[in-house]
Design goal:
single chain; 2 strands; 5 helices
């Protein structure tokens, strides 16, 4: 029961993180609440990788749902030994947790790239990536953020939302990594032994 509480709480934690990732990613499509820039393809290219909407969002919800099922006590018997069945279920939990790390890691990397690249915006020279050549140094130099004339406050919009996505996906990576460590320790330390003792049918 204690094992389920630990694993179940970690799996449940992934659900709000995934939902928030979906919301934040959607907000990236509407700078200042306007749909014009998305419809006219005037957004940073990294928002079209669906990192928070699909990978850290929908895919992570699926992973969380599967992990919650695997964490329940109603385990399906897949071989003769009960310990054997538990071990295979634990192995499945490791695999899906690893998938969770992959999905959230993808979101983390893409969001970081989007943050460093800066927004696609209109400057006095037209529409382009105004801060792409700064290699992310613009993040600490707010005095040049006004280079972007349109959308209004798009730099703040992108910095805040991409930073939130990085935080959410980073937490997902940590949660899934903890699950992998816990489940592997059960397998490697012999909590679920597949060896049938002599005399036991």
């Amino acid at each position: 029961m204690g094992s389920w509480k630990c694993g179940g709480c970690l799996s449940c934690l992934l659900i709000p993180l995934a939902l928030w990732s979906i919301i934040v990613n959607i907000l990236l499509y509407f700078p200042n609440g306007q749909a014009f820039y998305a419809s006219s393809n005037k957004l940073t290219n990294y928002v079209w990788y669906f990192e928070g909407l699909c990978f850290s969002g929908v895919m992570m919800l699926i992973v969380a749902a599967v992990l919650l099922v695997l964490d329940t006590d109603n385990r399906y018997k897949c071989c003769q030994s009960e310990n054997c069945s538990k071990k295979y279920m634990t192995l499945l939990s490791v695999i899906f947790s690893a998938l969770g790390i992959t999905f959230s890691g993808y979101c983390l990397v893409i969001s970081a790239l989007g943050l460093v690249q800066g927004p696609y915006c209109r400057t006095q020279d037209g529409w382009h990536y105004a801060f792409e050549s700064t290699a992310g140094r613009f993040l600490t130099n707010t005095s040049i953020w006004n280079w972007c004339l349109e959308p209004a406050h798009v730099v703040e919009w992108n910095v805040i939302l991409f930073s939130i996505l990085i935080t959410l996906s980073g937490l997902q990576v940590i949660v899934c990594l903890i699950r992998v460590v816990i489940q592997l320790s059960k397998i490697l330390c012999g909590t679920y032994s597949v060896i049938i003792q002599p005399g036991i049918i």
